Amino acid sequence: MQVESFRTFREFTDGASAIQSRNYKLVESLCRVPDQDRLDSPAYRSTPEVRMRILAGQPTLDEACSAALADDRFGAQDRELLTTAMLGFAGALRRWRQTHYRIAVRMLGTRSGTGSTEGTPYLSSVRKIPVFRSVAEAPEATDTTDTTDHVNEGEAAA
To answer: How far is the CA of 108 from the CAs of 5, 85, 116, 122, 152, in angstroms?
Structure first.
């Protein structure tokens, strides 16, 4: 989609924002319990049903994996398979976050986001949130620094 077409389309979203995406917050919160500051943020306050599930103690994949690895339910080969699967899923989610961020930078440049959000600075910060805590993600996996952070509107339209 061309930048100008996106900007025209964006006028008709009635201020809706990806920050308000119930499905994304559900996936994120089923992976692991969000940190308290994230849970108290506008991102989760805009999805009260998901926030209430978390506060009610919704089980997470991270908790299940941590418990399984801690009490030796699996042999070494199964532990390796579980860890590899968790890291693979975490990598896929991080790539989605990075792609979403890059598209937003291209389409929005330095403009604010929809739904009264700050736009690309917000996306830049949340793409670095660890997906899981029970398996160690490589440091480079959570450092998704990208040179498109500083794209100006003239470059974004190119």
So the answer is: 12, 34, 14, 13, 9
